[in-house]
Amino acid sequence: MTDKRPSVGRSWLRAITARLGIVAAALVVSTSALAQCTSGSLQGVLTPTATFQTVTVPAGGPSYYEFAATTGSTYTFTMCQGGGSAGGDDSYLTLANTTPTSIQVADDQCGAASELVWVATSTGTFRMYVSNFVCDPRPVDYTLAYKVVAPGGGGPVQSDLCSGAVAITCAQSPISGTTIGSTQDPIPCTLAGNGFNALQQAVWYKYVGDNQQVTVNTCALGYDTRITVFSGSCASLTCVGGNDDFCGLASQVTWNANTGTDYYIAIHGFGATATGNFTLTLTCTSLCLPLPANDDCALASPLTIGAPATQAAPTVRTPAPRATPLVLPPSPHCPMCSTPS
Fold first, then answer.
1. According to a count of CB atoms within 10 Å of the terminal CB, is the N or C end of the chain lower?
2. Closest Cα to residue 336, out of 238, 241, 207?
3. Which residues share a beta bridge with 216?
4. pLDDT per residue over 295-317, tens digit each?
5. How many angstroms separate the CA atoms of 208 and 165, rounded?
6. CB 297: neighbour CB atoms within 10 A?
């Protein structure tokens, strides 16, 4: 993510976050509330329907809209589709309850504009805070598009198909989701314990490779889930990793997300018809690179007096940006793609 405004402080935050992954993200959260923006005044009340509606969010703020949510329904608030727009600005969305406590955030889903998709885990009144990154006043008018899809009606659940996979980042974690009402998809991988191309009720997310090691799990809230991660395209999926029952009946997968590669994350259940609500947690750290064979003292390479010694170049833990994607084999020192338990 790159902030296009000339603020030195904000540019520094963006650069540090991009290089240090979740460590920097944690630092920003603690110093400038990157994970949320729950300040501002009430701008109005929204009544989402099954089709996109729009509302003009005037320059200024930050401010918020209230709306009534129903358990299991999928709510979309966006400046990326449905007539929504940030007017070329760097927008930021925060979903919160009325306390207010942040539930989910969204930033840079389409360029610098934002889109937040949330499956309601309870019925009640909630708030959608609309601001400039991170919690600055909006310099221009925004157009916020919004809609709701009821469970089992009004259309498929959000990201029901691979072709409709919702792009996600670690900055959005945790993400609420559901497979209730989803269609059965063939899962062309056996690493989560299912048969090859077994039909499973699944929803899909997309992670754009950014040279970080990514861990996804449903440990916080999950029915009997399975997770399978693919690279490539929806028309030609290549299995990267999968897991079943990493933490109780929930799942976890870790992999190197290389720049230049798209990754598709399928959340599905144990069995062809198992469905439920889940919370998807993402964690990003530096790439896990292979270590030299003599990295440990016990594996020291012998030296012969008078003979030249050879040694592989040192491993660089945080590689500099490069023109071509960095593709690395798994390292036994790293918790790479989890396997079924």
1. C
2. 241
3. 253, 282
4. 667 777 787 777 665 655 554 44
5. 12
6. 6
What b-and-e string marks burial along 115-126, b requiring 16 or more CB atoms within 10 Å of the CB? bbbbbbbeeeeb
Question: Nearest 5°: CA angle at 185, between 197 and 168?
Answer: 110
Domains (ranges, CATH) in the chain?
33-155 (2.60.120.380), 157-289+323-341 (2.60.120.380)
How is residue 59 written in tokens? 């320059």
Q: Which whole-number Å values give the CA distances from 278 to 139, 151, 183, 227, 265, in the listed order?
A: 36, 14, 17, 12, 14
pLDDT in tens, 6-54: 333 443 344 433 433 333 333 223 223 345 789 899 999 999 987 889 9
Distance in angstroms between the alpha carbons of the first and the last residue of the chain = 36
Rounded to whole angstroms, the Cα distance separating 267 from 177 reads: 9
Backbone angles phi, psi at 8, to 5 degrees: -65, -45
